[in-house]
């Protein structure tokens, strides 16, 4: 598969990149590691006239602490993140998720910004051009129907990025820049409920930084993933959990749980978290929580597994995640 023709541009500053984006409008796409975008271009899912390579911009690939916040540049690779001592020590769920994504070769190029801004995936969509041409185009490709939800008038493709569930439990914020200025927003608010577009990133905006507040002391977080193949595969379900016990290590004072690759939008399970909060943790309380969580998620049919299958996987991963996180927090 060959790439379509495009003009390659390599700005040397965020300002230059924003200006090019403003001029080129929707005919240009940003490229970070290119590990997802170039595949999509080869499959003719995306055909930008101009490709703006962000890797020429210095200073966007660093991890540093400032005012009690960890700041990760958007071009920091998943390998850098998984190997960073501070991420491993203070944000282990993010280190685990970065290590579980793709393969070592891909992680050397793949960036956190690209992972957050990843396009939504669907079994009918992420195929070669020849495969897609064997049937009428779906809604996302300008056709009249969705193959996933019969009679559906929206696109139900899924956001399958590994780093997003842990970032949600870490209450990450993202900083976006355009020629109009900059804005910082909670990551949770970046994602859209349904449709081909995954995020509220506006045309012309560039994600430049991820901010992570210091996690509460004595908390413990982790990420668990289930995929079709043990490695080099997107998650079928990704689950991140963070718990903080009280001083006596019996009662759960805080719980944050997020699930990815199950519904179009990566979700914090805020209602289910309430089941754990303020409770003495026992197998019965964990079972109640998991029961509530499998009702809170709304898996989409026929994308990489039926809703029933996904609910079973979510249930098993959540049981394991909460038990492990609770044991981890007790030993901190
Ligand atoms: C074989 C293979 C296996 C994979 N397995 C996994 C996996 O297990 N888990 C997983 O999560 N991903 C997986 N991926 C997908 C991909 O490699 C990662 O999601 C990666 O983190 C994407 O980052 P990137 O820098 O390469 O993004 P790119 O491909 O450069 O960009 C992805 C999208 O984000 C946009 N974008 C990039 N940076 C910015 C920015 N700073 N601001 C605004 N928009 C931006 C681009 O325009 C594009 O739409 C896999 C890919 C391959 C090829
Ligand atoms: S969810 Fe439906 S509309 Fe969206 S890409 Fe898949 S088949 Fe197309």
The helix/strand order is EHEHEEEHHHHHHHEEEEEEEHEHH
- What is the fold-level CATH name, i.e. the topology of the largest domain? Enolase-like, domain 1
Shape: globular
Counting helices, strands and paired strands, the structural category is alpha+beta
> Taking all residues together, what is the mean pLDDT?
95
CATH class of the largest domain: Alpha Beta
Main sheet record: 5 strands, antiparallel
Number of domains: 3
Approximately how much helix is present in the residues?
A: 25-40%
CATH architecture of the largest domain: 2-Layer Sandwich
Number of helices: 12
Q: Can you characterise this structure?
A:
The chain has 332 residues and is of the alpha+beta class. The chain has 3 domains: 1-58, 2-Layer Sandwich (Uridine Diphospho-n-acetylenolpyruvylglucosamine Reductase, domain 2); 63-117 and 158-213, 2-Layer Sandwich (Uridine Diphospho-n-acetylenolpyruvylglucosamine Reductase, domain 3); 220-331, Enolase-like, domain 1, CATH 3.30.390.50. The protein contains 12 helices and 13 strands. The strands form 3 sheets. Strands 4-5-8-6-7 form a 5-stranded antiparallel beta sheet. β2, α2 (37-42) and β3 (50-53) form a beta-alpha-beta unit. The radius of gyration is 20 Å and the shape is globular. It binds flavin-adenine dinucleotide (FAD) and iron/sulfur cluster. Flavin-adenine dinucleotide binds next to β2, α2, α6, α7 and β8.
